[in-house]
Amino acid sequence: xxxxxxxxxxxxxxxxxGFYPEKMIILFKDNAPDELADYxxxxxxxxxxEDIKEGYTLKIDGIDYKIxxxxxxxxxxxxxxxxxxxxxxxxxxxxxEGTLYLEDKEIKEVSLGSEIQILA
Length: 120
Hints:
M1 Pyruvate Kinase, Domain 3, 2 helices, PTS_IIA_glucitol/sorbitol-sp, PTS system glucitol/sorbitol-specific IIA component, kinase activity, protein-N(PI)-phosphohistidine-sugar phosphotransferase activity
C-alpha cells in the first residue's frame, strides 16, 4: 500500500464529540474560521499526493476504514483547505460533495497527536 495522505491532529474542537453519534468527523487545517473551529478536528500537515478513490483505506491511529464513496470536491477541498467531512455510514453514493464516505464501523475517537492516513 502506498501513502496518499498523512497528517496529525493538532487540536480538537469542544463540540467534535457531538458528531460521533452522527458517525461524522469534520477535518480542517489549522486555519479554520473561528465559527467552525469548535466543530472540527484540526491538523497542520496537508500533503495530498494523489486523488483519493473508492476502495482506498483511511486509517485513524492504525484502525482501518475502507473508503466507500468520494464526494466531487473532496480532493480539491483537502488539497486547498485541508477540509473534508468523514462519514462512517457505508454509503456507496456521495450525497454531499465535500464528504468522504467510509465503511459503517465504530469511529476511533481522535486525540491530540492522532495520525490520520489514506493509503492506496
